[in-house]
Write a structure and sequence with these properties.
28% of the residues lie in helices and 16% in strands. It is an alpha/beta fold. The chain has 2 domains: 58 residues, no CATH class; 73 residues, SPOUT methyltransferase, trefoil knot domain (Alpha/beta knot, 3-Layer(aba) Sandwich). The strands form 3 sheets. It has a 3-stranded mixed sheet. Strands 4-5-6 form a 3-stranded parallel sheet. A two-stranded antiparallel ribbon has the order 7-8. The longest helix has 13 residues. The radius of gyration is 22 Å and the shape is elongated.
Length: 183
């Protein structure tokens, strides 16, 4: 398919620019002074000629990407958030309480998804599971697990609703001062 010539607007240099504020909805983002790799990408993926290509300054690029160093090229796509899960239909739920570090939260979500868990209940005080660091650490587990939000009252209510014949696994924290001496 022959590519059509695209016109590129002025370089975006400020995060206050309306274009920079909506960049999460764009498809291809290119740092100023980079080669035209994006044209090849658009052609190979058979994207429509209306695909937006925005050129931004290195400072704006770093802010949008969330990385200190970049290769100057990034593809962005708008992805819908998953629907909130239904705790009553989920069989195996990981309950996370006050996990404030987004990287740790993402790692726990990725591990739960890898172990075949159905959902994650994030109690008050947890980091945003859709924070850029959480998404990076989870490797997209947020879209494989159902993610629910609640507090300890909701947890008690759901545990009571599960009724007899169900089990609730709670973590047992062991504090080890010396090897072999946990309490």
């Amino acid at each position: 398919m022959a590519s059509e010539k695209r016109n590129f607007g002025p370089v975006v240099t400020s995060l206050q620019n309306a274009v920079a504020k909506r960049l999460v909805k764009l498809l291809v983002l290119v740092e100023e002074d980079q080669d035209l790799w994006h044209q090849d990408l658009i052609d190979r993926l058979s994207l429509p000629p209306t695909t937006d290509v925005i050129v931004v300054s290195p400072d704006v690029f770093r802010k949008i990407s969330g990385l200190e160093t970049t290769e100057g090229r990034q593809v962005l796509a708008e992805i819908g958030l998953p629907e909130q899960c239904d705790l009553r239909t989920s069989k195996r739920i990981i309950v996370l309480d006050r996990i404030q570090d987004p990287g740790n939260l993402g790692t726990l979500l990725r591990t739960a998804a890898g172990l075949g868990w159905d959902a994650a209940l994030l109690l008050d005080g947890c980091s945003d599971p859709f924070n850029e660091k959480a998404i990076r650490a989870a490797r997209g587990a947020q879209w494989r697990l159902g993610v629910c939000y609640g507090d300890t009252a909701l947890l008690k209510e759901e545990a009571a609703a599960a009724g007899k014949g169900s089990s609730l696994l709670l973590p047992l924290l062991l504090f080890c001062a010396l090897p072999g001496r946990c309490f």
